[in-house]
Write a structure and sequence with these properties.
Elements lengths: L8 H33 L4 H7 L1 H21 L1 H18 L9 H29 L5 H56 L21 H21 L2 H10 L3 H25 L10 H23 L4 H30 L5 H30 L1 H20 L6 H10 L1
Length: 414
């Protein structure tokens, strides 16, 4: 931590939170790839492997909803450290002999990991609101974009790391290395992260986990459909399509998706530059609606191209690149808006509710991805994706600057 000497306390806290989030994300991505590849080697069916992550997504929904209240009650430093601690336990659970690694057992470990991931993410995103002056929305946008973009870049690197560690050290060795790394980060976070960060002045009631702000409800609905639109064709349909239609090996599929996630993360980091205005003002919900409307074109164009007999390989690869760029910008805009609109006192309540909707979108997209692809194919998944994006645009457009509740939030922030 000597490198932080001479740096303002505000920046120190940001660096500690970001480093914490980075370490967690790296192990989270690596763990997902380790589980997929290792259990495939053991002869598990694709459906059984998918079930391993079912609790991961379900508990993500619950954690975001309850975690926001918990963060406002006890402080974001505590929820972030609890998240890291739970991830260490989840990883340690997988160090048992292979004979104990049943589907049910691994689902429990993944459930803990899902809780840990969303506690960590909610804490990191909420903390930034408290570290940036309320009047500096432009800087807030840059910090949110950097945190979010770097997280997704590291998640892609985590996919690669998981494959490398599995090859070099085997499943148990790879898990052990990640446990040691996270323990060191966790100890540093326990001693260096500011106490009671994000703790509300008045202890919130549990019933306040549901947002009373119309603007945040609309934004949460937009987020739900935005991420359902991605996962309905990306999570299951796309990897299976790449392997079945193009004959790509598992390493090629994993490597390609890892590169896509890294690109997606880099674009998220650059979003403030790509969406900057001449006035220097921060983006609004209108910008989110406009960029969402542009994104709708991509899955529709891909579906038309596949139905029209164009090269499937070029259509999917080029379409994915364009989708990565536009989706990353949309995601960054949404991530900034929730942090900007959230009430500064008890910020994690609003952010937790919002990311609960995000988790619902991932869960909806994941379930539909397998079902729609199995019954109707990739083209149908792309059309459903376009419909979901259109719904996200609709909800974003309903957030009007003149809404009473949004004006109230803005006044509170200032």
């Amino acid at each position: 931590m000597k490198v932080l000497n001479g740096v303002s306390n505000q920046l120190k806290q940001y660096f500690i939170i970001t480093g914490n989030y980075w370490a967690f994300t790296l192990t989270d991505g690596a763990l997902r790839m380790l589980v997929v590849l290792y259990f495939y080697q053991l002869g598990y069916s694709p459906l059984s492997i998918a079930l391993l992550f079912l609790f991961y997504e379900i508990f993500g929904v619950i954690t975001n909803l309850v975690g926001g209240w918990l963060g406002a009650s006890v402080g974001l430093n505590k929820t972030m450290n609890i998240g890291l601690g739970l991830q260490i336990i989840a990883l340690a659970m997988l160090l048992v002999p292979t004979s104990y690694l049943t589907v049910a057992y691994v689902m429990v470990a993944q459930a803990l990991s899902g809780i840990a991931k969303d506690l960590n993410k909610m804490s990191a995103k909420s903390s930034i609101k408290l570290l940036v002056p309320a009047v500096d929305s432009s800087k807030l946008y840059q910090w949110v974009a950097l945190l979010t973009g770097s997280k997704n870049t590291l998640k892609g690197l985590g996919f690669f790391l998981g494959g490398v560690l599995l090859t070099w050290l085997g499943f148990t060795g790879a898990i052990a290395v990640m446990v040691v790394m996270l323990v060191l980060v966790w100890l540093c976070s326990l001693f260096k992260l500011q106490a009671d960060l994000g703790k509300a002045k008045q202890k919130p009631k549990f019933k306040e986990i549901l947002s009373k702000s119309r603007a945040i409800n609309f934004l949460s609905a937009a987020r739900l459909f935005l991420f359902a639109a991605r996962d309905v064709w990306f999570v299951i349909a796309l990897p299976v399509f790449l392997a079945a239609e193009f004959g790509w090996s598992h390493s090629w599929v994993g490597g390609f998706l890892a590169i896509w996630i890294v690109l997606y993360g880099v674009i998220q980091t650059l979003a403030p530059t790509l969406t900057s205005k001449r006035t220097g003002q921060a983006p609004t919900s209108k910008d989110a609606a406009i960029w969402g409307a542009i994104l709708v074109i991509v899955p529709v164009a891909m579906a038309f191209a596949l139905q029209g007999g164009f090269s499937a390989q070029w259509t999917v690869v080029l379409g994915l690149i364009v989708f990565a760029v536009l989706f990353a910008i949309n995601s960054s805009l949404h991530s900034f808006l929730i942090v900007d609109m959230a009430d500064k006192d008890g910020v994690s309540l609003d952010v937790g509710f919002y990311y609960m909707a995000n988790a619902c979108g991932r869960l909806l997209g994941t379930v539909l991805s397998g079902w729609i692809f199995q019954v109707y194919g990739l083209v149908a998944c792309l059309y459903i994706s376009a419909i979901f994006i259109a719904l996200a645009v609709l909800f974003a457009s309903l957030i009007k600057p003149g809404n009473d509740d949004e004006l109230e939030l803005s006044t509170t922030a200032k």
